[in-house]
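[agent] plan:
  1. take the single chain provided in the ticket
  2. run structure prediction with default settings
  3. attach structure tokens to the ticket
  4. add a short note for the reviewer (M.T.)
[agent] executing step 1
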Amino acid sequence: MSDNLKKLNVLIARVLGVDKNSITDATSPDTVDSWDSYNGLMLVSELEKDFNVHFTMDEVVAVKNVGDIKMALRRHAVEL
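[agent] step 2 finished; step 3 output follows
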């Protein structure tokens, strides 16, 4: 597992209050009760800060799960 992937899992776990080992590409607001609109915004903010990227509104709206987050980060040249 790459350092950035570890960093991503720790970030998601911290924001959503879940075990980092439980996070998969399918992890989504449908599978995590704490992934509400507020924590979704916090997640975007932390991702932008920790990975030094800026997501467009279209990218934010398109994210449906952790797999989508990974694809968005890769589009911003973040290696996972």
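[agent] step 4 note for reviewer: The chain has one domain: 3-75.
[agent] ticket updated
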